[in-house]
Amino acid sequence: MDKAILINNVTKKYKLYNNTKERLLDLITPKSYGEDFYALSNVSFEANKGDVVGFVGINGSGKSTLSNIIAGIVPETSGSVKVMGQTALIAIASGLKEELTGRDNIEMKCLMLGFSKNEIKELEPQIIEFSELGKFIDQPVKSYSSGMKSRLGFAISVNVNPDVIIIDEALSVGDKAFAEKSFEKMNEFKKNGKTMIFVSHSINQMKNFCEKILWLEYGMVREYGSVEEILPKYEMFLKKYKKMTKVEREAYKQEAYERQQAILEI
Ligand SMILES: Nc1ncnc2c1ncn2[C@@H]1O[C@H](COP(=O)(O)OP(=O)(O)OP(=O)(O)O)[C@@H](O)[C@H]1O
After folding, report:
1. What ipTM does the predicted assembly reach?
2. 128 with 103: CB under 8 angstroms?
3. Is the whole model's pTM more than 0.80, yes or no?
């Protein structure tokens, strides 16, 4: 099987500051201020070409951080990340320039992906049509609603024919009709053997669309395997988690952070 994504021991460390003064002082004397926070700790997983992998996990478990690292938007602190081919990330805030119009954003993104001016001219009408933005395509993106931004991001990404497509919650803000159209396009990609990563809190979408599930918990891999194996376990966990009191959730988190510390010390 050809590998499409190889993630080996990836860690992402952020610094958390108590106030702006600390943040500024840390720029002058690095390492003196702020507390280390690990959004990802030694995450490893592989996906084959054509796999459709869903990332699940409660809020803050590291799904977007890992998606952004795979897309090359956020650098990893340590570990190795290999992605074969061109990646397209579709997220609610996926690098659109707010001051530029929708049309200028299309051009900019396509240029960044290496398309020539002539190729962009050919692609542009189909991107605009897919986005259904009408006259708004010539308005600055800052005037768009989050659903409109998501439409534009989606329309660009799916029409530039990437090898690896990452969809991070982008379908949660659009309307139902656009989401359905987007799913059709994603199914077409699936049939054509594209590798896809799908981040969503909707268990049904995961069930219908993904083949494998990566379950993240406080920045660590809890489980990775087939949808049939992992999703029922995750659903059971969610039921239990929802019933936990605030104190129980805090204790659960604390226990996870202790495990994280142990992993990081190895
Ligand atoms: N730039 C940053 N600086 C500090 N901490 C960050 C930064 N970006 C993300 N984090 C933290 O990293 C952790 C993982 O965040 P991430 O957005 O990857 O989680 P998620 O699983 O996608 O969450 P959600 O389901 O809420 O979208 C969170 O605790 C978040 O606060």
Report:
1. 0.97
2. yes
3. yes
